[in-house]
Sequence to fold (362 residues):
Amino acid sequence: MMVLTVRYGKNGIANCVMNYISRLDPARVRCDLVCPNEPGEEARALVQQTGGSVFVLGGRNRRPLSYMRRLTRLVREREIDVLHAHGNSATLASELIAARRGGARVRMPHSHNTTCTMKTTDKLLRGIFYRASTDNMACSMAAGEWLYPKRDYTVLNNAIDAQHYRFSREARDITRETLGIARDEFVYLHVGAFNEQKNQAFLLEAFFKLLEQKPNARLLLVGDGERRASCEARVETLGLRRRVLFLGLRDDIPALLSAADAFVLPSLHEGLPLTLVEAQCAGLSCVASDRVTREAALTELVSFAPIEHAEAFALAMSGVKQTDRAITSSVAILRAQEAGYDVSQNAQTLMQIYESAVQKHR
Fold:
């Protein structure tokens, strides 16, 4: 049973989970999915391919005891061997305790970040969390050290279908024409939910500074969230309406990556951002915050810049060069596969982890 502790949507954790579920062998694993909100028909179809079912359980933070009772009942009724819960703090103790009460022998928390917002609660729950867990997982060493300091854990890289992001000249031309982007404009792309972590407000300040050096620059912002409206207002204040496009939630990320000339990620913290892996597979030069784990740099395409001052990040953005995208994309895809970021390979590894853990705890 996979459990999402964040809302299902176009976000890193949900994408990671569904990437794995889509590659599980139903002859070896039946996988149920628990979400705090309705995931939609596409997600349900992928889960059903494994013989599993989708369950919507709300109220995790507002009514935690009720949530735990319902999850316990589900684990027991579904006769779950492994509960695999995805989050970024010791609040995952809720899922682990419910799984233990429901009879799941393997209780597997999966760390997807390097900090959390509920720091006091996280600190209070650490002892309970460690006692309830049987097998610790993390998307990177940085995420593992955050949630399991001085404890054993297994790193399973956030993985993608690397070939899906291969650079396409045709997609580049069509997408740029559709968006009204001229041939001589240099396009920076950012993909992420509009929240504090992704730091889009800072990116707008850096982009404003960048235009002094690179007046032909355009910025594409993909995503949605509670801070989008304030960012749109800031664009108006800075007079950037003609230079910045808010594209909302999109299903054509590979085409947008092909259309761009550089990728930017000014996050305050990250576990291991899939977007940065995807951008490299598209052959894009990338500028990331110096607070993003270096494990995400699979190629020389990634440079890291400080985010204390907008001028410094703007300088790093101005320094990126266009590359022979067909070549850099092919090299990056190969690097991603060799480094363990191909979802088909990692799904095999994950199934082996499940089977080994069940045998160990039986």
User: Anything to note?
Assistant: Residues 343-361 form the longest helix (19 residues). The domain at 2-159+342-361 is CATH 3.40.50.2000 (Rossmann fold). The mean pLDDT is 95.
